[in-house]
Write a sequence for this structure.
């Protein structure tokens, strides 16, 4: 009787813990027992897509532990607001935060942007590739131009900037690090976002290839597979038609979405602990990650039964 009761209590505890888990087991262990984000103190970190959402949240988390930051996006006004807040949080001078606006798709300017970073700080430790756009459209609705535009932003721009920075790391900073913001869509086929899903799968292909090519070098890559998060991505999300955006404001609150603050904190933990791939999401999306990776055949059979277009929108848009 005592044994049955003990097993029941233990099972209840494990179920409760799993239900409230918002990251994969390796990230959870790093959160509880690994290096804290304080270990990033003094690091010079370049964040693209830093004007809002998890990029903005990551900037604040890193500023709180004394990181020197380069903030990039296309909206200079918002970047300056973020930079001002970072200075307040970090209690350091304005020179410790460099606002560097540019369009990630303008690959011709990437070397020039890196040169500006090095002129200002004389060094770069970490590049966080966070720029990107989302999408809401069925497979049949998507025109080829939308595929191209999304890949230019989500893949080709990030990959080219990585190549530029990689050359610098190989010659001047052998301990450099890359952070890459991917998505649940990088692990499984998220419905009604085919171009977006394809772009995130492509990111995994590029960066896993780079990881292998780097071999035993100390340059590390951390890929963040992020589930639904509170952000303004919906406002500028692509549809299936070129030039047409989803629009609309992010709902005030939702049980299916992780806060940008919490998500970016877990990203910082993953960076500090050099985790290869970090899954960050609330349940049940986090469980989907595990089934998609470890039980793919079973996952493909059961997933369509409870993830139709309506439920997909509920999970992703709140």
């Amino acid at each position: 009787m005592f044994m049955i009761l003990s097993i029941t209590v233990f099972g209840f505890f494990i179920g409760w813990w799993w239900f409230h888990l918002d990251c994969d087991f390796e990230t959870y262990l790093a959160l509880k027992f690994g290096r804290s984000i304080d270990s990033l103190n003094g690091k010079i970190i370049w964040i693209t897509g830093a004007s809002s959402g998890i990029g903005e949240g990551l900037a604040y988390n890193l500023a709180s532990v004394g990181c020197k930051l380069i903030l990039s996006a296309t909206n200079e006004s918002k970047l300056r607001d973020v930079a001002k807040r970072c200075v307040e949080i970090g209690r350091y001078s304005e020179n410790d935060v460099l606002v560097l606006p540019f369009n990630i798709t303008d690959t011709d300017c990437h070397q020039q942007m890196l040169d500006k970073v090095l002129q200002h700080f004389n060094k770069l430790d970490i590049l966080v590739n966070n720029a990107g756009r989302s999408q809401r459209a069925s497979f049949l609705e998507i025109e080829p131009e939308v595929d191209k535009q999304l890949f230019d932003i989500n893949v080709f721009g990030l990959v080219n900037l990585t190549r530029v920075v990689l050359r610098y790391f190989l010659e001047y900073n052998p301990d450099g690090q890359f952070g890459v913001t991917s998505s649940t869509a990088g692990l499984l086929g998220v419905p009604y976002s085919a171009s977006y899903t394809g772009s995130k799968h492509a990111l995994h292909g590029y960066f896993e290839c780079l990881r292998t090519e780097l071999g035993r070098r100390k340059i590390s890559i951390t890929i963040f597979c992020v589930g639904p998060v509170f952000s303004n991505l919906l406002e500028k999300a692509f549809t299936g038609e070129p030039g047409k955006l989803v629009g609309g404001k992010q709902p005030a609150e939702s049980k299916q979405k992780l806060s940008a603050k919490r998500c970016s904190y877990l990203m910082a933990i993953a960076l500090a602990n050099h985790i290869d791939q970090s899954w960050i999401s609330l349940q049940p999306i986090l469980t989907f990650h595990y089934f998609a990776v470890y039980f793919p055949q079973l996952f493909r059979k059961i997933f369509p039964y409870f993830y139709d277009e309506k439920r997909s929108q509920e999970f992703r848009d709140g």
